Here is the input.
Amino acid sequence: MLSLKRKLIGQQAMFTKPIQDSETVTEVSYEISRMIAKRSRPFNDGDIVKECIVIAAKKMCPEAAKKVEKIQLNRMTIQRRIMSLSGNIAEQLTEKTKIIEFFSLALDESTDISSTAQIERSNQRS
Here is the structure.
């Protein structure tokens, strides 16, 4: 009975491990995409980032190198990830604005070095 239980656990692990690995790879891809967007870098920077990570993994942790190679960081994937992230942020803002009761907008005009008027604003919730 105990050996059957071990076999069952082993079979279940065979299916759950790849799913967990796939989720981790996707999560890493999103995090790197977020960093690329945050720094206003070109989408194809994902390719060089992946190359660097693969080189480091092969040297420092060869058993993890195969997992690292699965990370999708080509420019089209980066673009989709960033669009997904921005869509999620827009949804969150839409939801949060539904509960806002008051909103104030303060404007201040100043001039720059060439005496051109510049409007500065600060948003505050009341």
